[in-house]
Amino acid sequence: DALIAAGIAYPQGRAKKVDGGLMLSGTWNFCSAVNDSTWNMLACMVIENDKPVDWVQCLLRDAEYEIIDDWQTMGMRGTGSSTCKVENLFVPDYRVQSMATGLPGHRFAGVEENPNPMYVIPTSSVGGHALGGCVVGNAQGALDAMLDWIKSRSTVQGAKMRDFQTVQLRIGMAGAKIDAARLILRNDCVDAERETAAGRAVTTEHKLRHKRNAALAVKLAMEAIDLLQDMAGANGIYQKSPLERIFRDARAAGAHIHFSTDMQMTQWGLVASGGEFKSPTL
After folding, report:
1. Which residues are CB-contacts of 33 (< 8 A; sequence separation ≥ 6)?
2. How far apart are CA 206 and CA 192, in angstroms?
3. Torsion sign across C-alpha atoms 11, 12, 17, 22
4. Is residue 146 within 8 Å of residue 243, measured between CB atoms?
5. Are 279 and 257 in contact (CB under 8 A)?
6. SS3 assignment for the chain
7. Tens of each residue's pLDDT in the chain, 282 residues
8. Contact 143, 182 (CB under 8 A)
9. How far apart are CA 44 and CA 26, in angstroms?
10. Which residue segments constitute the domains of the chain, with CATH numbers given?
11. Angle at Cα 262 formed by Cα 264 and Cα 220, nearest 5°?
12. Cβ-based neighbours of 122, under 8 Å, separated by 6 or more
């Protein structure tokens, strides 16, 4: 069975049209699971006369790209998201999918054969929600671990940790932030599926709202983890503590461009206030 690496939809590469396909070059960061995959999907901009004319994703065999062993990171180490490099590779047309023509969702290849709304939702709308869900699940794991730990902890004087109001406050606030983050992500997914099921193309404002919400959900999840990590104190710095890894993984995942609140909040704010936002990948 073919194993396909997590595709890189952001166009880090460049290509030019030739007879029967494209000539592709580029370097792609964050190719998750690439070492265990026999195929990879790498996005690029097609350039003509020094201008981008299309945004496409190319399907490549593992022998057609170089894997750079650079995934030495503080968190998310298990994803193996190494960098891939390609130089002057011919990619036949049948292994090229235009992402630009599918931005509204309803024009993606295969939609007529499989009209399920799940496969019509634009990736630029809720593509980051999948990773966002992992961050929220990570935060839930931190809360579960902390609750188990607190039940058996007491001070040297015999006072139970769960009876301290500061502990109760942090637990309550962390739980509320996690629940809120989960609801935000779920609401966006339901909303996107409902819109596409009704045959409505997702607008720029709608996409940016979803991206804004994903960034907020991850921010809430990371804040919950910070509350719990601080409460763990010195016990939370040992590698045997699940909070140590959860904290590192959250920081690594939260660095994803999808979750930059500075970017996502301002972009939606611009459009919501009557401004115009243009991006070839939205």
Report:
1. 3, 5, 6, 79, 80, 81
2. 9
3. negative
4. yes
5. no
6. CCCECCCEEEEEEEEEEECCEEEEEEEEEEECCHHHCCEEEEEEEEEECCEEEEEEEEEEEHHHCEEECCCCCCCCHHHCCEEEEEEEEEEEHHHEEECCCCCCCCCCCCCCCCCCHHHCCCHHHHCCHHHHHHHHHHHHHHHHHHHHHHHCCECCCCCEHHHCHHHHHHHHHHHHHHHHHHHHHHHHHHHHHHHHHCCCCCCHHHHHHHHHHHHHHHHHHHHHHHHHHHHHHHHHHCCCCHHHHHHHHHHHHHCCHHHCHHHHHHHHHHHHCCCCCCCCCC
7. 666 766 788 899 999 999 999 999 999 999 999 998 999 999 999 999 999 999 999 999 999 999 999 999 999 999 999 999 999 999 999 999 888 776 766 566 677 777 787 777 887 888 899 999 999 999 999 999 999 999 887 777 877 888 889 999 999 999 999 999 999 999 999 999 898 888 787 889 999 999 999 999 999 999 999 999 999 888 889 999 999 999 999 999 999 999 999 999 999 999 999 999 988 788
8. no
9. 8
10. 8-98 (2.40.110.10), 117-272 (1.20.140.10)
11. 80
12. 102, 103, 104, 105, 202, 207
**Contact criterion met (CB below 8 Å) for 123 and 7:** no
